[in-house]
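User: Could you go from structure to sequence for me? I need the amino acid at each position, not a summary. Structure tokens:
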């Protein structure tokens, strides 16, 4: 299965609770934290919801 690297580039202060929960579910939570995740449609949907807070590097 393909992997992607997700990096949080913006903070969660003054963001809606739903976006905070999505970022936490991705395994992030601090600016600069990265996580290698399986590339699935569910994960892509989560990333689309918080695209302004994270960057994605495809491998």
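Assistant: Here is the amino acid at each position, in order:
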């Amino acid at each position: 299965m393909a992997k992607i690297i997700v990096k949080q580039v913006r903070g969660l202060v003054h963001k809606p609770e739903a976006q905070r929960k999505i970022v936490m579910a991705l395994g992030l939570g601090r600016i600069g934290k990265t996580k290698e995740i399986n590339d699935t449609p569910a994960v892509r949907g989560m990333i689309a919801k918080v695209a302004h807070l994270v960057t994605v590097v495809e491998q």
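One structural detail worth keeping in mind: The chain has two helices and three strands.
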